[in-house]
């Protein structure tokens, strides 16, 4: 791994993807709908991002927001999306599924991993919703996931730091534990030093005002919690650079 660490930046636009690479990201997690924690992006977005960046692009496979308990039809969608993203040049995939009692859905994960082969697969933050993280980690290792993205089953990676450290100790290099969730310039050093992680995940975004001059303030395009229509969140080159520099100095 270059410089002994790898920074993965979560992006939902071509602009963010380009900015992340310019700032020094080593890999992208490509999603849509970051407000919902990231959903499967369009094939068009993947195709265009692949034209503009050279670093690996891992594609989120998540058919909807909410929980990680999927119906047969949703599984069908996930299988199709995996096949499509593979055929369109995805370098890796990001997915996860749970049972109703909060365990990893090993059967479904095995099925999806088989469709994903030979691409490397990350288990996403569905891990943070499991009943027993230590047991879940062993299941991930036995299934053959390459890494797990986790905030340590807490509201952010900083809050979850003690568990992240325990998971890295438990993993003993059999699977990569990648901290993510609320990572910023202010807490990255503490998270890396406190966990011993070699990879980390962030969005490094800042808000940019829309170029729209005419604005209808009476209308909102999504649910009440949605971001304002006239403010765009984009990966910030300088933020990515800063995080990169902190990681280099820490590790």
UniProtKB/TrEMBL annotation:
The UniProt entry, under SUPFAM superfamilies, shows: CutC-like
User: Does the keyword section mention Nucleus?
Assistant: yes
Residue ranges annotated as transmembrane are none
Question: What stretch or stretches form a coiled coil here?
Answer: none
Q: Which domain of life does the UniProt lineage start with?
A: Eukaryota
A Pfam family that the UniProt record links to this protein: CutC
Localization, per the record, is: Cytoplasm; Nucleus
GO cellular component labels:
cytoplasm; nucleus
Q: What is this protein called?
A: Copper homeostasis protein cutC homolog
Cite the source lineage.
Eukaryota, Metazoa, Chordata, Craniata, Vertebrata
